[in-house]
Amino acid sequence: MAMKVGCCIGMAHYGEVAAAGYQSIALPGVDLAGMDDAAFQKTRETLKHGPLELHSVNSFCPPDLRLTGADFSAQRLEDYARRLFARAAELGVSYVGIGGPVSRSTRPGEDPVRASEELKNALALLCRLGGEYGLTILLEAVCSLECNLVVYTHEAAEMVRALGLPNLGLVYDIYHAHMMGEDPAYVLSVAELIRVVHIAQDQNGRRIYLREAFLEAYRPYIQALHRAGYSGEINMESFVGELPEELPRSREILNRLIAEAQESASLGGK
Question: What is the DSSP letter of 53?
Answer without folding.
Answer: B
